[in-house]
Amino acid sequence: xxxxxxxxxxxxxxxxxxxxxxxxxxxxxxxxxxxxxxxxxxxxxxxxxxxxxxxxxxxxxxxxxxxxxxxxxxxxxxxxxxxxxxxxxxxxxxxxxxxxxxxxxxxxxxxxxxxxxxxxxxxxxxxxxxxxxxxxxxxxxxxxxxxxxxxxxxxxxxxxxxxxxxxxxxxxxxxxxxxxxxxxxxxxxxxxxxxxxxxxxxxxxxxxxxxxxxxxxxxxxxxxxxxxxxxxxxxxxxxxxxxxxxxxxxxxxxxxxxxxxxxxxxxxxxxxxxxxxxxxxxxxxxxxxxxxxxxxxxxxxxxxxxxxxxxxxxxxxxxxxxxxxxxxxxxxxxxxxxxxxxxxxxxxxxxxxx
Length: 354
Known about the structure:
Elements lengths: L1 E7 L16 H6 L3 H28 L4 E3 L19 H17 L3 E4 L12 H20 L7 E4 L8 H13 L3 H4 L2 E4 L7 H11 L3 E4 H6 L6 H35 L12 E4 L17 H11 L5 E6 L4 H17 L4 E5 L2 E4 L3
Parallel strand pairs: 1-2, 1-8, 2-3, 3-4, 4-5, 5-6, 6-7, 7-8
Antiparallel strand pairs: 1-10, 9-10
């Protein structure tokens, strides 16, 4: 099984490359000239996009094929106080440059809207805010010119006193969204409320892929052991990705055939995706550690290797790309000991089944 690794948003190795520079709304309102204030927001956003491109080039140079964009690329983008502001014309070139680099180098990128983006909510104003947040993320991907294979990963949301009712409400409210949003979403199990089984059921119901977070499962397993997760649940999770890959290939072929008037074969590859982190030492096992435990990760990977030709793993360590490169050093030692892993390059490995 081929496994590629990625990191989240920030780099610990690049200097002056934050993609999340911002301005508070309080500071925005202190600027007397509103047009000048909006121009300043656009300059900050352009700096964030330039830093994002630097991050992608840094990842590519290190053989890292996966990257999660910061959700803070455009300051105040979803704030109601600037609802009349259209930032995209000024940022179009910078967005397109990112998208071109991603596609040219066949990188796998994503967004992860924050925990305020919830579609299980019973409150209309929160639902409206969540839709606004989804529009923001989807619009950025569209401005990059990236296809629907590039996703926004979300959680189901809160239980609000009745998890069964909240889960049903999520399905109903999510299915009411336009396809333009729904086709951009993956669902992830969380560490407190909706476990892997429940998240899989929701993903199957709304027909989107599921991202398995291994750390979240360990602290919220719903009574499902690691062995059962790998033997029974994982094949169903992987199937959600196969179905999405099939949908994308079918739609791409239909569109191309209609345009060209001929029958071509299109192959969009969308391997299953997981998240992995290690618990920080201390009383809260949900916290992420600075680095990653290679033995724990390899155990999971080897248990699912027989049924999975390729898998992409987003690492959620506090030390970001530095932790990824340290993990690769650990895998090199495991490879030297004959532990069922082979180093492919500085950002990916091959794993043999147990």
